[in-house]
Amino acid sequence: MAHEVTVMGRDGCHLCEVAEAEVARICGELGVSWRSEDVDTDPEWRAEYGDRVPVILVDGAEHGYWRVEEDRLRKALA
Fold first, then answer.
1. What are the structural domain ranges in the chain?
2. 29, 48, 55 from 51: Cα distances, Å
3. Phi, psi for 45 (deg, rounded to 5)
4. Angle at the Cα of 37 from the Cα atoms of 39 and 22, rounded to 5 degrees
5. CA Rg, the chain, in Å?
6. What distance in Å separates the CA atoms of residue 47 and residue 78, rounded to the nearest whole number?
7. What is the pLDDT along the chain (78 residues), one digit of tens a residue?
8. pTM exceeds 0.90, yes or no
9. Between the CA atoms of 46, 52, 54 and 60, what dihedral angle is there, to the nearest 10 degrees?
């Protein structure tokens, strides 16, 4: 099954930049596609995720927030 990871973040967020770099590395090693979205571009996203960015989604479901838990993410993508 092909997975997709999304990092919900915002411009100027240092934790978001760190999460994106970690997700890019992990997904690159596993051959999993990923993307980032700015929560401030959509009022629903801002309401849902705005206080917890970065939020990591795996296949559209919330996987975690604030920090990437590498072992847990790898298990979800295995």
1. 11-64
2. 30, 8, 10
3. -65, -45
4. 115
5. 12
6. 31
7. 689 999 999 999 999 999 999 999 999 999 999 999 999 999 999 999 999 999 999 999 999 999 999 999 999 999
8. yes
9. -70
Identity of residue 25: R
Distance CA 59, CA 2 (A): 9
Q: How far is CA 39 from CA 6, 7, 72, 77, in A?
A: 11, 10, 24, 23
Give backbone dihedrals phi and psi of 70, rounded to 5 degrees, phi first.
Answer: -55, -50
Angstrom distance (rounded) from CA 64 to CA 38? 16
| Residue 17: partners with Cβ closer than 8 Å, 6 or more residues away | 9
Distance separating alpha carbons of residues 27 and 2, to the nearest angstrom: 12
Contact 15, 49 (CB under 8 A): no
